[in-house]
Amino acid sequence: MRAKEQHLESGLQKIRRSTRLHVLMRPVWTVLLALSFSVPALSAEPEFFMLRPDVERAYGYTHAVRIGHQVKVSGAVSMDAQGNPTAPGDMELQMKNVYGDLEKILAHFGLTFEDVVVENVFTTDMAEFLEVSSEFRAKLYQGRFPTGSWLEVKGLALPDFMIEIELEAYAAE
User: Fold this and answer.
1) Running DSSP on this structure, what letter comes out for residue 42?
2) Which DSSP letter does residue 115 get?
3) CA of 43: how far to CAs of 21, 40, 68, 90, 157, in Å?
């Protein structure tokens, strides 16, 4: 019987300690609850952005979406306003056109390449991309490069596309 009494007493002590902790934590919980109502929450609704609405509707995609602090950007390729490839056969110019479009998309959300955390590159010629990209990207990212993957692929959406880049960015606000 003594063992049962000790076990019961031990359980009661645990309850008393947790009750004291609950009473001691009540002011902290009150402050946290008050703060949760005073800090503006990010919209839970996704914000979609189309760079070339007619082209994107025709192909069935949206170029970017912001959800909370994250901005996801679909793969960008070197194209004109009608969706036609630009600079066929010129990797460097296609790359610069792609980064130009990505810059416009980031700017829509108030971001720059400094906010990019993931960059995925798909190219039909990795050797040529490596040859033309390092200096340009170093200026773009100013020495702090994002994570990501670089993949050489057999082909992209249209035969004249040589490079496609998708991004993810972090929006602090």
Assistant:
1) P
2) G
3) 35, 9, 6, 41, 33
Is the pTM above the cut of 0.85? no
Distance CA 86, CA 129 (A): 17
The closest of 72, 70, 90 to 62, measured between CA atoms, is 72
79 residue type, one letter: M
Q: What's residue 17's pLDDT?
A: 60
Q: Quote the CA–CA distance of 68 and 53 in Å, as a whole number.
A: 23
* Amino acid letter, residue 21: L
Beta bridge partners, 116, equal: 169
| DSSP per-residue codes, 44-73 | SS-EEE-SSHHHHHHHT--SEEEETTEEEE
In the block, residue with structure tokens 């670089």: 150
Taking residues 124-138, report their average pLDDT: 96
Pairwise CA distance, residues 156 & 59, whole Å: 14
Q: Give the C-alpha separation, 119 to 147, whole Å.
A: 6
Q: What is the pLDDT of residues 60-112, one digit of tens each?
A: 999 999 999 999 999 999 999 999 999 999 999 999 999 999 999 999 999 99
Provide the angle, in degrees to the nearest 10, between the axes of the packed helices 91-108 and 126-141.
Answer: 40
User: pLDDT value at position 42?
Assistant: 53
